[in-house]
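ok so for the tutorial part 2 we go from a plain amino acid sequence to predicted structure tokens. step 1 is just haveing the sequence, like this:
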Amino acid sequence: MHTQLIINSLYNETRIAVLEKSKLSELFIERKSSSSMVGNIYKGKVEKIVPGVQAAFVTIGSDKSGFLSAEDVYEESLELFLEEEETAKTYRKKHQPIQDMLQQGQEVMVQVTKEPTGNKGPKLTSHVGIPGKYLVLLSGSDSVNVSRKITDKKSRKRFTEFMQKKPQDLGFIVRTACMGADEKDIKFEMRSLVRKWKRIKKKYEGLKNPGVVYEEADTCIKVVRDLMGNGLKKIVVDSHKAHGRITKYFSDKIKRDDFKVDIYDKEEPIFHRYGIESQIEKMYRKKVWMKSGGYLIIDEAEGLTVIDVNSGKLVGEEFHKETIMKTNQEAAVETARQIRLRNLVGIIVIDFIDMQSVKSRRKIESLFTTEMKKDKARTTIQEISSFSIVQLTRRRVRESVLSALTEPCDVCEGSGRIKSIYTTCYEILRDIDQWTKQSAERPLVVHANKNVIAKVREIEGRAIRRIQRERGVKIKFKSDEYLLEKFTISREEDLD
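step 2 — the prediction. this is what the tokens look like for a chain of 496 residues:
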């Protein structure tokens, strides 16, 4: 599938859009105020063991203690990498009780596999993995696993034999990007990952207190790395700094024209140019219209999401069965896209329009399962029921996109959501950036909620001062009784 990556980087926020045939399929948002912890490796100290739930709480030097379950102490945990790679059943061993493996005050090397959410701290594993472009190094293992997306038997055998040259005390996953890669480059990366692992161990041993010993690459690099070998053809980025990081990290792949990295330098904002901003706006809505005239209703809670399929404008009596099938087929494709796009996690229930025929239900089930194969997150899909209901579970690694973009609305006492204060802050900053490119003759006046203004000054005050200095324009903020998500920007002389 032809995939494009569109990257918008403005000051302390980076937004990464994955486009498949010009449609937004995934959205990643990284802000320096809440950067991702997934993939980071820490020196931790066991602060409490809870035998009742077979888990331990581990201090890692951050605000919240991490959660380490017994299975993540004893067996190899590959949650970070199994979205794409072969499930390593050989790692699954019967674990001992956690009180027999750990004790309070014990130091342990851990890696974050899931972001902290709400009052919960990050999920940890004591068996770490270090990803590269072609390989993933696995500590505490001695096996070689080949990506399940490499289906050619000869290639799988060749990679397995080639990787026998690895160090005996380390394991590796051969990633999809190895297809077509030069064996010299793969061997070079293997040695590089081994050296990185040795540096991590040395830093771990040198730390006296809990803290970070290795930080994963930024979101830009991670997303590009994960999409390599999966149809990625083009990257367009509007930041010279981000462009430089990507081209440096992936220089060997770019040289072979595996994909292009272009700098975007037009006046029109990049997300407007590619029609992404309007698609993001639709994500705030519960109702999702489909081309056929049907629609989805998406109700997202913390651990459960219900998606209801409706026929909408398609109500012809003569073609009732055909209408149902057509709507359900489109819904199967669109629902799979919305699950990825919104990053829905936990239990997901999809209520398709009722189908009497077993054959029809199986057809919809097969189509939906095929579409979900594009998803890198681990999912378990149950068989469609006689009521045309599909249930699935999807593993959480990062928070849902809606959680990142919105927050509970105080006005309706939590029954609905509005754009978060951070989302509004960066919308204001993007608009200021565009306004000040056009003319610097008259001051700008930003009318917004007082809490939003305070937050803009707190997290991007330096950026505001830089804009004023470099573009010679004065920016004024005026507090009004707007909701968090509402604001206006105008020239000072236009206010009358």
